[in-house]
Design brief:
- By secondary structure, this protein is mainly β.
- 0% of the residues lie in helices and 53% in strands.
- Strands 2, 4, 5, 6, 9, 10 and 11 form a seven-stranded mixed sheet that branches. Strands 1-3-8-7 form a four-stranded antiparallel sheet, with no helix packed on it.
- Strand 7 and strand 8 form a beta hairpin.
- The radius of gyration is 13 Å and the shape is globular.
- 30% of the residues are buried.
């Protein structure tokens, strides 16, 4: 069983920055591709960013590329999402996701990010 706990959300003005953290416990973090998703009010959950197991490759949705940076520290069992130049449309609940090569996918409980204009 894997537990994911997100933190770091909050209220920020447009143009500001936040750093989300995802603490992973229960299994070795290096076994998982790690991803961030978000869900805005009234919308479905959408992909934001992912990082491979060795942190050598990242991928971003077009809407955040160049503004957000995903990173991981396997030794600390932590995953991060640095969010810069935030926009009101970035307002959402942000979820951490652990995806193995095969098997169960795990989700955190989410952290709220609100960007005011």
């Amino acid at each position: 069983q894997v537990q994911l706990v997100e933190s770091g959300g909050g209220l920020v003005q447009a143009g500001g920055s936040l750093r989300l953290s995802c603490a992973v416990s229960g299994r070795t973090l290096s076994s998982y591709v790690m991803k961030w998703y978000r869900q805005a009010p009234g919308k479905g959950r959408e992909f934001v960013a992912q990082i491979n197991r060795s942190a050598t490759s990242t991928y971003y949705d077009d809407s955040v590329r160049g503004r957000f940076t995903i990173s991981r520290d396997n030794a600390k069992n932590m995953v991060y999402l640095q969010m810069n130049s935030l926009k009101p449309e970035d307002t959402a609940v942000y979820y951490c996701n652990a995806s193995p090569v095969s098997g169960t996918i795990y989700w955190g409980q989410g952290t709220q990010v609100t960007v005011s204009s």
